[in-house]
Amino acid sequence: MNHPDVAQLFHHAQQAAGVIAAKHRGDPAGAEALLAAFPDDPARVRGFCLLAELALSLVRARTGQSMDDLVRELTLHMAAAVLDPPPGR
From what superkingdom does this record's organism come (predicted)? Predict the structure, then answer.
């Protein structure tokens, strides 16, 4: 298995962040273009995984929660969103 270099991994995480930013500013075409710019699915997955880990680490640093507690809380929020989605979705 080939392992990506660190610079490439962070580039893919930045791309993933760009996808999310584009969606939140109401630019679905920009989000789709950024998604399509990933070289392959493994790069896309690694980029989003690193972004998620970095985001959770930022929350953990602010709240003092353990990563296990944060993941548990996130999982509960995800389950609640599936069972009771916000209006308009």
Answer: Bacteria
**Alpha carbons 57 and 62: distance in angstroms, whole number:** 9
Distance CA 1, CA 57 (A): 27
Spatial separation of the C-alpha atoms in residues 73 and 46, rounded to whole Å: 23
| Greatest C-alpha distance within the chain | 44
Residue 89 lies in a domain: no
Q: Quote the number of domains for the chain.
A: 1
pLDDT at 53 over 60: yes
Contacts of 7 (CB under 8 A, 6+ apart): none
60 touches 67 (CB < 8 A) = yes
Query: Which structure tokens are listed for 43?
Result: 């790069």
Q: Assign 3-class secondary structure to 16-41.
A: HHHHHHHHHCCCHHHHHHHHHCCCCH
